[in-house]
Specification:
This protein is an alpha/beta fold and 183 residues long. The protein has a single domain (9-180), classed as Isochorismatase-like (Rossmann fold). The protein is 31% helix and 26% strand. The radius of gyration is 15 Å and the shape is globular.
Length: 183
């Protein structure tokens, strides 16, 4: 069983809202605007914000594709974390940083829904954090594999539905729109 985090301090995880990740995603401009709104509201609430950026062969650290999309600018005091795996927890300093700020509740937004958002959500719950997925602030691309096609909107809806009903012992798992997130 996971160690359940005590306390009620919320932290925001903005995952992979990078130029190369967001290219071609479903409703990317709307989603970026919602992520911006979550960041604005978190800053007013003085909740810590963690900017997580994937780096890989396709998203080379420092390259134009690796950069955050225009409009998203971390404040000097906000922590940036690089990752190589889908989950923002795997082989990163994220958990140590969350412990440092006393976070027990995580608010999750970003991309890609079916990869890094899903993996980070499960990673948070597995590690004992309460979780709120910002249902209108994550996106992905339509998946096409031969004759099989899964629309991006359906992937987003699937994760929203999953997070609404998924239960873990002694943890709160929820979804909320950007305007209704509780910090």
């Amino acid at each position: 069983m996971a160690t359940v985090r005590r306390g009620s301090k919320a932290a925001v995880l903005v995952v992979d809202v990078q130029v190369g990740v967001m290219a071609g995603t479903w409703e990317s401009q709307r989603v970026v605007a919602k992520v911006c709104r979550v960041v604005e509201r978190a800053r007013v609430a003085q909740s810590p914000i963690f900017w997580i950026q994937h780096n890989s062969d396709d998203l080379v650290l420092g390259s134009p594709e690796w950069q955050l999309v225009p409009g998203l600018v971390p404040a000097c005091s906000e922590v940036r974390i690089d990752k190589r795996y889908n989950s923002a927890f795997e082989e990163t300093r994220l958990e140590a940083e969350l412990l440092r700020v006393g976070a027990s509740r995580l608010i999750l937004a970003g991309a890609a829904t079916n990869w890094c958002i899903r993996a980070t959500a499960y990673g948070a719950l597995d590690r004992g954090y309460d979780l709120t997925l910002v249902e209108d602030a994550h996106t992905t691309v339509t998946e096409v594999d031969g004759e099989r096609r899964i629309e991006a909107a359906d992937i987003v809806e699937d994760l929203n539905n999953t997070m609404m009903w998924l239960e873990y012992p002694d943890r709160v798992n929820s979804i909320a729109v950007a305007e209704e997130v509780v910090f």
